[in-house]
């Protein structure tokens, strides 16, 4: 059993019925459930259950979500490197199911790293709309970018800003916002026992005050008629129901909407909010509230579009030559060159000047010395009909492991030039065929040791 902080135990006993508390504390003797969520941009639900080599059972409140057995270790499988699924705690999957993004929406994930909610949103948007994924911590934003890259998300903007700077730049801009707030993490004590050492009553109070500020900034960025989901992985009422009560009192233009799939959850102590309790479902502790801003979503356009300089004739020539060689199409839209890095910007992207950007859109590659070198992000976002030359390895082959380790592979095929390397048809990265060798372009930082 996890050694829970004494003051936490006292508070939970004070706020729960005796029988309920006994069953709540008994849940700490059980193992945490493990979950993964399929990538609808890469595989259908039926295809997924047929093809995955793991034993999977559905997470009832999340159609793309499944429980897996820990011993299957899906995080080590080549399909993980290909972004076919994302490993996510099953209760955390309820958050974006409650937000329900739709293709074409502009969605903000304000506290986004490492990207569980962002990849879930990107799956629902598909190639239409815009996901702005923001993370305040510079080291965590790197993991967020990498996870969105592996997912194959194209229409994204990844920023590394504070919520108040974001609010200045995006007034009434988003159709949907998720605030998956930094919190005291009580709901993670079973899964991450080290979280117990970090906990204190002062931390609960500090998180509550931080959440009040974050929510106030998020409210400014939502369009009238828009929807915002607030979530935490803690049990403290001050960070949950009381937080939302304070928010509603300060923001009369907001009201609570019922949370979808609520039949699987427990009502919170504020009407329409829900709790996910570890003794009542297979997952860790969570709180969810779905808030709606009054008004009409078709309102004002508040932000100027990013103005981009057309690419120089030289850059366009080398990029188009690459597309003719390696792809069946030339990506359409607004290109932007940042230094020597070429991006395709998402539609409706606002002005980016003076924002700290980690990724401005779909990173296509690097233009250097009159040549174009495609990026890992381009490979992972390509669909099977979009590349010309591909080398496929099966998931249980020695070659796939050698590719992921960064080794050069020998190849007797006659082809030459840029080629996509796939595992059972899912892109893993680039290779270059040169005189019977497959030169490895799997990024050094991602290689398996
Ligand atoms: C619960 S985690 C987010 C998890 C993420 N949504 C996911 O699903 O992978 C909360 C995030 O808020 C960030 N954060 C911490 N302090 C913050 C602040 N003052 N404003 C905004 N975000 C903050 C943390 O760095 C952390 O990445």
TrEMBL record:
S-adenosyl-L-methionine binds at residues 111-117, 135, 180. The active site is at 233 (nucleophile). Coiled coil: none annotated. It holds the Pfam family RsmF_methylt_CI. It comes from the Bacteria. GO terms for molecular function: RNA binding; RNA methyltransferase activity. Residues 1-294 form the SAM-dependent MTase RsmB/NOP-type domain. The keyword Transferase applies. Keywords: Cytoplasm, Methyltransferase, RNA-binding, S-adenosyl-L-methionine, Transferase. GO terms for biological process: RNA methylation. Belongs to the class I-like SAM-binding methyltransferase superfamily. RsmB/NOP family. This is Methylase. The lineage of its organism: Bacteria, Bacillati, Bacillota, Bacilli, Bacillales.
């Amino acid at each position: 059993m996890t050694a829970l902080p004494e003051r936490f135990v006292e508070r939970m006993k004070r706020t729960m019925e005796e029988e309920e508390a006994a069953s709540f504390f008994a849940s700490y003797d059980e193992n945490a459930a493990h979950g993964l969520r399929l990538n609808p941009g890469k595989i259908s639900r039926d295809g997924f259950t047929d093809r995955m080599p793991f034993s999977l059972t559905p997470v009832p409140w999340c159609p793309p979500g499944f429980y897996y057995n820990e011993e299957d270790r899906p995080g080590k499988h080549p399909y993980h490197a290909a972004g076919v699924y994302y490993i996510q705690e099953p209760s955390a999957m309820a958050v974006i199911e409650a937000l329900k993004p739709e293709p074409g929406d502009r969605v903000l994930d304000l506290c986004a790293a490492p990207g569980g909610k962002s990849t879930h949103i990107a799956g629902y948007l598909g190639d239409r709309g815009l996901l702005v994924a923001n993370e305040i911590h510079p080291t965590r934003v790197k993991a967020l970018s990498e996870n969105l890259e592996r997912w194959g998300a194209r229409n994204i903007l990844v920023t590394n800003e504070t919520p108040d700077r974001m609010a200045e730049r995006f007034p009434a801009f988003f159709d949907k916002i998720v605030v998956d707030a930094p919190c005291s993490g009580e709901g993670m004590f079973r899964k991450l026992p080290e979280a117990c050492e970090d906990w204190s009553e002062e931390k609960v109070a500090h998180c509550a005050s931080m959440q009040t500020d974050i929510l106030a900034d998020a409210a400014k960025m939502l369009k009238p008629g828009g929807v915002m989901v607030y979530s935490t992985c803690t049990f403290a009422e001050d960070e949950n129901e009381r937080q939302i009560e304070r928010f509603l009192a300060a923001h009369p233009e907001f009201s609570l909407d019922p949370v979808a799939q609520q039949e699987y959850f427990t009502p919170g102590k504020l009407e329409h909010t829900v709790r996910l309790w570890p003794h009542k479902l297979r997952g860790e502790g969570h709180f969810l509230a779905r808030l709606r801003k009054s008004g009409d979503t078709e309102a004002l356009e508040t932000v100027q579009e990013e103005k981009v300089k057309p690419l120089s004739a030289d850059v366009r020539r080398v990029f188009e030559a690459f597309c003719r060689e390696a792809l069946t199409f030339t990506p359409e839209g607004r290109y932007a060159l940042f230094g020597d890095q070429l991006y395709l910007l998402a539609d409706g992207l606002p002005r980016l000047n003076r924002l700290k950007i980690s990724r401005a859109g779909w990173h296509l590659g690097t233009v250097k010395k009159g040549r174009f070198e495609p990026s890992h992000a381009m490979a992972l976002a390509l669909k099977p009909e979009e590349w010309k030359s591909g080398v496929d390895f099966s998931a249980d082959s020695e070659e796939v492991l050698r590719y992921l380790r960064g080794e050069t592979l020998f190849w007797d095929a006659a082809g030459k030039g840029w080629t996509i390397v796939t595992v059972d048809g899912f892109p893993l990265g680039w290779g270059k065929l040169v005189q019977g060798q497959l030169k490895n372009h799997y990024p050094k930082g991602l290689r398996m040791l």
